[in-house]
Amino acid sequence: MPTHGAYQLIGYRSHQCDATATYTHNGARAYVLCDGIGSSDAVRDWTRTATRRLARTAAHQADAKAGLRAVYDDYAADPDRQDKYARRLPAACAVVAVTAPGKPLTVAWCGDARAYVLTPRGTLARLTDDHNRRRVFGGSRNIVTSCLGATETDEEVKAYYGHPAIESCTRAMEPCRLLLASDGAYEPLEDSAINIADYLTGSPQHAARNVAAFANAHAGPGSDNATALVADLRTAPVK
Q1: CA–CA separation, 219 and 223 (whole Å)
Q2: Are 199 and 190 in contact, with CB atoms under 8 Å apart?
Q3: Mean pLDDT of the chain
Q4: 31: left (phi over 0), alpha (psi -120 to 50) or beta
Q5: What are the pLDDT digits (tens) for 4-17?
Q6: pLDDT for the residue 237
Q7: 198-206 long-range Cβ contacts below 8 angstroms, 24+ apart
Q8: Tens-digit pLDDT profile for residues 134-183
Q9: Residue 235: what pLDDT?
Q10: Could you give all domains of the chain from N- to C-terminal order, each with its CATH number?
C-alpha cells in the first residue's frame, strides 16, 4: 500500500503553480511542497523544477534545513537575481520534511506553506510558523516575508521581519501522518473553523484529496491553487 499521496486543484487561478515531490537516498526520504508566487507559465515551470531539485538535495543531505539552505543559497547567488534592476524572477514558498534512519523528523520552510503531523492519539500539531505580514505586523497574510528565490540572508530578513529567511524544527520520530499544505489548502478550512484532522482519514491519497477538495469547496469563487501531500511516517531503523 502506498505510504504517501498528493492531490491538487487549480481553483480559479489561470495556472497550477503548486508542486510536490518526494525523493529517497540511502534510506532518507524527502517530502517537498512548493507554492509558486504568481500565476504564469514561467512560475509554474520554475516551481516544478525547484521542487524536484529541493527534494533531491534534501534527501542527499538527509536533513530538511541543510537541503533547503543549499538550494536557497544557490538560487540567491544567481547574478540575475542579484541585479535589483532586473525583472522579477520566479519564486515560491517552500516546506520540506525529511525522515532518515536513526534521526528525528526534520522540517524546514520559507514562506507560508505549512507542515502538520497527526499523531496516533489524534492530535494535530502544526510544525511551521508562517512567513507573512500577518505573523509579523498583523497585516496581510497574502504578502510573504521569505521565499525560495529571494536573495536576502537570514540576518537581513531577521532584522526587518524578526525571523530568519529559513526556519526549521525537529520532532522525535513516531508513527504519525504528515501533512504538507499550500495556503490554498489550509486557509479555507481554517477560516471555516474546520478541524483539518477530520479530513486526514483513509489512505494518504484519499486524505490529500479530501483536504484539497474541501478547501476548494469552502473557498468558493475566490479559490486558490490547493495542494496537499500526505505521508504515513514510521519510526526509521538505526542505520
Answers
A1: 5
A2: no
A3: 95
A4: beta
A5: 999 999 999 999 99
A6: 41
A7: 200/118, 200/124, 200/230, 203/1, 203/2, 203/5, 204/2, 204/3, 204/4, 204/5, 204/177, 204/230, 204/231, 204/232, 205/2, 205/5, 205/6, 205/7, 205/230, 206/5
A8: 998 888 999 999 999 999 999 999 999 999 999 999 999 999 999 999 99
A9: 65
A10: 4-233 (3.60.40.10)
81-104 mean pLDDT: 91
Grid coordinates in use for 213?
A: 477538495
Cα 232 to Cα 19, 21, 24, distances in angstroms:
19, 15, 15
Which cell goes with 80? 540575475
CA 209 to chain centre: 16
Look-up of cell digits 523544477: 49
Nearest CA to 136 among 120, 155, 151, 157? Answer: 157
